[in-house]
Amino acid sequence: MINSERLKAYLDFFNKEYEFPMNAPFYGTNSNLRFDSDEEAQEVVDFIVQNSPYAQNYSFDVTELDPQEQGFQEGSYITIHKKN
To answer: Which stretches of the chain are assigned E, i.e. beta strand?
Structure first.
């Protein structure tokens, strides 16, 4: 379980980065949204969806990335897709 301060920090990051859908990429995996487990990543997704006024413009996936194929550190990431 992620503590409330970290959840708030992830929410603040999302709100700052994704406030304007026109400026956001169609989809992206951000290294600032890396977690040790799928459960942690899903907890953050749920918190963002419930608390961000901008979440309605996006869909979210939790993905495990292989660092050898993707160039990211091993872990679970939140991939954000802009809705049309």
So the answer is: 27-35, 58-65, 75-82
- At 3, the amino acid letter reads N
φ, ψ (nearest 5 deg) of residue 54? -100, -10
* pTM value surpassing 0.90: no
Q: Is 80 exposed, middle or buried, given 0-12, 13-18 or 19+ CB atoms closer than 10 A?
A: buried
Which H or E run includes 10? helix 4-17
Helices 38-51 and 4-17: angle between axes, nearest 10 degrees: 60
Cα–Cα distance list, 58 to 14, 27, 54, 68, 69 (Å): 11, 9, 8, 28, 25
- Residue 14 corresponds to which tokens in the numbers above? 């999302």
Which residue positions in the chain have pLDDT lower than 70? 69-70
Residue with tokens 């799928």: 38
